[in-house]
Specification:
The strands form two sheets. The protein has a seven-stranded parallel beta sheet, covered by helices on one side. A two-stranded antiparallel ribbon has the order 8-9. The protein is of the alpha/beta class. A hairpin with a 2-residue loop joins strand 8 and strand 9. It is about 35% helix and about 15% strand. It is globular and about 50 Å long. The chain has helices at about 25-35, 65-75, 95-100, 120-125, 130-145, 170-185, 210-215, 240-250, 265-270; strands at about 10, 40, 80-90, 110-115, 155, 190-195, 220-225, 250-255, 260-265. It has a single domain (about 10-280), classed as TIM Barrel.
Length: about 280
Amino acid sequence: MPESSPIFFDSHMHTPLCKHAEGHPIEYMERGVEQGLAGIIMTCHSPMPNQFSHRVRMSPEQFNEYVAIVQEAADAAPDGFEVRLGMESDYFPGKEKWLSALHEKADFHYILGSVHWHIPEYLDAFWRGDPMAFRRQYFEHLADSAESGLFDSLAHPDLVKNASPDDWDFEKMRPFIARALDRIAKTGVAMELNTSGLNKAYPEMNPGPKMLTMMAERDIPVVIGSDSHTPLRVGDQFPRALENLQKAGFDTVSVFRERRRMDYPIKLVQESLTIPKSAF
């Protein structure tokens, strides 16, 4: 394979079925081709039972539609470009059986697990007015999600820093993050470097560089995702994300196929990308 051949995937993006994204999967596919990627993995927000967080996800009745529109993009893709079926599923205590059954309903390549602190159900259950306690609980749930065995990778793993960005203090949280990462490392579950964090209230990728270094020290594999909710963001900031991984101590970056992790040398991925560093 020539060094310039596309080999890397954007492993996190959405569809209008989640009610807060735009663009058919075919448009995401077309953008991925333009960005010099080998493929994309669609990971729209999973359905949940009993109207749980229903305003920001597909309904259970739309699941088959989701699988179908992803297949439409796969069928429309040019030779050599892959569109893989994935899903972003919420970890929430008590919903494990629902998710386990859901993940068997299609031939997924990748299941991305998320702890979404900002949905009403999570806030109702765990917010007690103490930001530090809330953050500690979040990281405990992050480790719980890895230990559940439900997920291949954990999405935007320090997302909670956006809960109260003005008083986010990484050093105060370091021991609690370390404890969570120790648990995650034992599971073999990967974690995501999510480039959309640059557009959030605390403007840095999720996770930030200090947590990324702690992940490298524990040999936790990393997958890169743009978390695109519009086709124009496919591949957003990937050159910068790869540099962040190198600075943190990583040599490889990962992609999933048929729920199995594949690792690529970062230097090879950098050589394969045609996305200009100044593109974003």
